[in-house]
């Protein structure tokens, strides 16, 4: 089990996120080392997983690009030091001022999700007298073995351009003076642990590229999105995800053309395991049939269990060797879904203990809300203590 610097951690008011930057660096070094084994592989960090400034800076320093899904994410990426030529920008509803921000800063590419959006990008680029680089996000109708709320690559989902419209939209873009078509983009979902799902995407990419080449269209960039999952059940056994197998799956299955770049947009797998939500046991309450461990963090700080039925390991770090007892671990919010775990075996806890909710570095702090007029949780690294 991971050990935590309990003396230090108890100096700050809970709840807050605690980020292990050593693990982050180890994860980033692994990504860079593994990607380097493959020709033309470029990795971008999906900012939406965690946009904490200190974390973004560290990722930028390690040379990754940034994958953004809003104008403010593009701003955050630029401020953190990601060079514009390594920023890609996706999203189904980019507004004019967001598109202009991308054009004015000369970002690498808009991942364009509809003909309607393409027309607007052309108009705005013309207004600025510039050329905007565009890749088309194609909906590959490839499922993923993950939670329905985080599946994005099925025809029923709102994302991307239908496969049957691919040629039409590329042809249209070629006639647009302020658009440069530079590639295809895909993203099938998140928390994917079965490499066969990525293989299915790779095979679909092959099929679509063959189709385009028959019409004389070559594609400089293939962006396969993100989605690699992490081990929520045993974070200490797998602190760094298996990036080697992930990249290998694409190399083994996708027919990369001469000189073609392959882009990845990894979010959860970069930052998920480095973060824990640190909270305090406020009361241990006896219910009719069970005991509740009531903590001061709630679904406003970490919404994943309520939103996705997500599992997070929970550790009583004040009493790591204590006898195990079974609790429902719940928060203070006035919602029955404000539950971190049901019937969960954890070292016996009492009022005042520090509790770590593990694997919370991705889609944690960034999804926090102020419901019930709560404060937003802070995000600390070792340097803050
Ligand atoms: C969310 C998202 C990602 C990152 O997904 P992870 O599962 O966190 O790796 C990548 N690309 C796009 C377009 C996304 O929306």
Tally of separate helices: 11
User: Which shape, going by the Cα principal axes?
Assistant: elongated
| Chemical compounds bound to the protein | pyridoxal-5'-phosphate
Poorly predicted regions are none
How would a textbook summarize the main sheet? 8 strands, mixed
Helix content: 25-40%
Portion of residues in beta strands equals 15-25%
End-to-end Cα distance = 22 Å
Topology overview:
Blueprint: H1 6-9, E1 16-19, H2 21-36, E2 41-46, H3 53-61, E3 65-68, H4 71-80, E4 87-89, H5 96-104, E5 109-112, H6 115-128, E6 132-139, E7 161-162, H7 166-174, E8 179-185, H8 195-214, E9 221-223, H9 243-253, E10 261-266, H10 268-271, E11 275-286, E12 291-295, H11 304-308, E13 314-316, E14 324-330, E15 339-347, E16 354-357, E17 378-381
Parallel strand pairs: 1-17, 2-3, 2-10, 3-4, 4-5, 5-6, 6-7, 6-8, 8-9, 9-10, 12-14
Antiparallel strand pairs: 1-11, 11-12, 11-16, 13-16, 14-15
Helix pairs in contact: 4-5, 5-6, 8-9
Pyridoxal-5'-phosphate binds at residues 46, 48-49, 67, 69, 90, 187, 190, 225-228, 265-269.
Structural features:
alpha/beta, elongated, eight-stranded mixed β-sheet, single chain, binds pyridoxal-5'-phosphate, 385 residues, eight-stranded parallel barrel
Characterize this entry briefly.
The protein has 385 residues and is an alpha/beta fold. Helices cover 29% and strands 24% of the residues. The model has no long low-confidence stretch (mean pLDDT 96).
Characterization of this structure:
The protein is 29% helix and 24% strand. The chain has eleven helices and 17 strands. Strands 1, 11, 12, 13, 14, 15, 16 and 17 form an eight-stranded mixed β-sheet that branches. Helix 4 (71-80) runs parallel beside helix 5 (96-104) and helix 5 (96-104) crosses helix 6 (115-128). The longest helix has 20 residues, at 195-214. The two termini are 22 Å apart. 46% of the residues are buried. Bound molecules: pyridoxal-5'-phosphate (PLP). Pyridoxal-5'-phosphate binds next to strand 10 and helix 10.
């Amino acid at each position: 089990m991971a050990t935590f610097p309990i003396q230090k951690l108890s100096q700050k008011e809970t709840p807050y996120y605690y980020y292990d930057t050593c693990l982050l660096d180890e994860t980033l070094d692994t990504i860079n080392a593994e990607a380097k084994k493959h020709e033309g592989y470029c990795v971008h960090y999906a900012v939406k997983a965690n946009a904490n400034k200190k974390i973004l800076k560290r990722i930028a320093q390690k040379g990754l690009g940034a994958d953004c899904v809003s104008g403010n994410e593009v701003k955050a990426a630029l401020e953190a030091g990601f060079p514009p030529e390594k920023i890609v920008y996706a999203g189904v509803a980019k507004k004019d001022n967001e598109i202009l921000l991308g054009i004015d800063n000369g970002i690498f590419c808009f991942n364009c999700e509809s003909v309607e959006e393409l027309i607007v990008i052309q108009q705005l680029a013309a207004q600025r007298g510039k050329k905007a680089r565009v890749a088309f996000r194609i909906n590959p109708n490839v499922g993923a073995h993950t939670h329905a709320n985080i599946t994005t690559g099925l025809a029923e989902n709102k994302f991307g351009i239908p496969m049957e419209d691919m040629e039409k939209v590329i042809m249209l873009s070629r006639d647009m003076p302020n658009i440069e078509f530079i590639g295809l983009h895909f993203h099938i979902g998140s928390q994917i642990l079965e490499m066969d799902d990525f293989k299915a995407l790779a095979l679909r990419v092959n099929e679509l590229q063959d189709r385009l080449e028959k019409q004389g269209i070559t594609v400089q960039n293939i962006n396969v999105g993100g989605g690699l999952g992490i081990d929520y059940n045993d974070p200490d056994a797998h602190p760094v995800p298996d990036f080697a197998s992930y990249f290998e799956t694409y190399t083994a299955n996708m027919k990369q053309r001469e000189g073609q770049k392959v882009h990845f947009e990894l979010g959860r797998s970069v930052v998920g395991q480095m973060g824990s939500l640190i909270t305090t046991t406020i009361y241990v309450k006896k219910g009719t049939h069970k005991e509740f461990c009531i903590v001061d963090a709630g679904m406003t700080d970490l919404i994943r269990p309520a939103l996705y039925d997500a599992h997070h390991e929970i550790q009583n770090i004040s009493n790591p060797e204590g006898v195990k007892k079974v609790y429902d671990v719940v928060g203070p919010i006035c919602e029955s879904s404000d539950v971190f775990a049901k019937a969960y075996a954890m070292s016996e806890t009492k009022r005042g203990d520090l509790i770590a909710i593990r694997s919370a570095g991705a889609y944690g702090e960034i999804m926090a809300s102020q419901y019930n007029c709560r404060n937003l949780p802070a995000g600390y690294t070792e340097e803050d203590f």
